[in-house]
Amino acid sequence: METCKAAVFVGAGKPLAMQEFPVPPLEPGAVLIKSLVAAVCATDVHAFHNPRAPHPVIWGHENVGAIARLGKGVTTDAYEQALKEGDRVIYYPATCGRCFNCLAGGLPCEVRRNYGLRPFTTPPHITGGFGQYVYVEPNALLLRIPDDMSTERALFAVIGNHTVMNGLEKLGGISVSDAVVVQGSGPVGMGALTQAKLAGARRVIVVGAPAGRLQMAREMGADETVSIEEYREPEARAQRVRELTDGRGADMVIECSGADTAFQEGLEMVRAGGKYLNLGQLTDYGPMPVNPSLITRKSILISGVLGPTFKHVTRALHALHARVKYPVEKLITHEFPLQRVNEAFRVHETLEAMVAVVRPNG
């Protein structure tokens, strides 16, 4: 192939535009990936409305692809598993190994260039999953997907689960005696639910809406759900959580909603001596009312995490392959060809979809 199509973000509020790009020859160590499936992420939707969002850019950072071409010298993935054309892989940007974050460990590299998030001015332009092909640069980390694992299941290694794994590691994990509350019933919330069940939590409560998402949460293993449409006030939701947790509150709360009032609400739900993992608060809403005395009086351990490292991507893939028994593939509720990418964004934003995906090659 000499050219390929991709959906390009050209500015806030403007529909993604179909454009054609050259497929460059591979430099040594590079790989050309054929996009199989790419999910719409809330990060993309927020950027779509942000006048300051950089452009042009080919979005799509939650992806699975198949190797179309291997550059000179590429014979294995990051774990020395042999690679050939046609193998399905997850790909992760190269890390420098020298910045503070790399040396500290557990933090994303400060200078990595994420696929699906980088604006382009010069070739290679094709660096996002909402394109037919992705040019993966030398020294990137590849992870081969087991042959007996579905592409759809593998996709969830890079939707929620990997970031949750990083956050849980920072807070010392979940005990089998723990009651866990997940704030948010979207894709990241489902990842938190999956990981809490995998860790053996005795009870997992998902707080969110709409009703269809909460029903899906129960299918994925939630022991209880709390609807924000039924319990409309934060105090009512916190009270319901206390009722479901022996009156004390949750041993751990995982915030995945990104709602501007969620952090304060979560503080009310954590028991004394409990833990609070903040994953959803990426959008900068500016100053918000928070009562820090709750942190002190309840001796709450709090951590935030921006994203995963490659280690957590790997662990998420292995867990989904061998340990997770819930039908996570059902979380993909809407599929679109590349030409209908804007519809995928619409159903994500309206909450019609749990996970909306684009199949750029069919």
Key traits:
362 residues; alpha/beta; Quinone Oxidoreductase, Chain A, domain 1; Rossmann fold; 2 domains; 11 helices; globular
Describe the protein.
- By secondary structure, the chain is an alpha/beta fold.
- It folds into 2 domains: 3-145 and 327-359, Quinone Oxidoreductase, Chain A, domain 1 (Alpha-Beta Complex), CATH 3.90.180.10; 161-304, Rossmann fold (3-Layer(aba) Sandwich).
- Helix content is 26%, strand content 24%.
- The chain is built from 11 helices and 15 strands.
- The chain has helices spanning 42-48, 100-104, 151-155, 161-170, 187-198, 211-219, 234-244, 262-269, 293-297, 310-322, 341-349; strands at 3-8, 17-22, 31-39, 63-70, 88-92, 133-136, 141-144, 179-183, 203-208, 224-227, 250-255, 270-278, 301-304, 332-337, 355-359.
- The strands form 3 sheets. Strands 3, 4, 5, 6, 7, 14 and 15 form a 7-stranded mixed beta sheet that branches. It has a 6-stranded parallel beta sheet with strand order 10-9-8-11-12-13, sandwiched between helices. The protein has a two-stranded antiparallel sheet with strand order 1-2.
- It starts with a strand and ends with a strand.
Distance separating the two termini: 16 Å
* CATH architectural name of the largest domain: Alpha-Beta Complex
Number of domains: 2
Shape: globular
% residues in beta strands: 15-25%
What's the pLDDT, averaged over the residues?
95
Helix content: 25-40%
Unreliable stretches (pLDDT < 50, length at least 5) are none
What is the CATH T-level topology of the largest domain?
Quinone Oxidoreductase, Chain A, domain 1
State the CATH superfamily name of the largest domain. Medium-chain alcohol dehydrogenases, catalytic domain
CATH domain class name of the largest domain: Alpha Beta
In sequence order, what are the helices and strands, one letter per element? EEEHEEHEEHHEHEHEHEHEHEHEHE
- Figure out the total of helices: 11
Query: What is the radius of gyration?
Result: 20 Å
Largest β-sheet summary? 7 strands, mixed
SSE class? alpha/beta
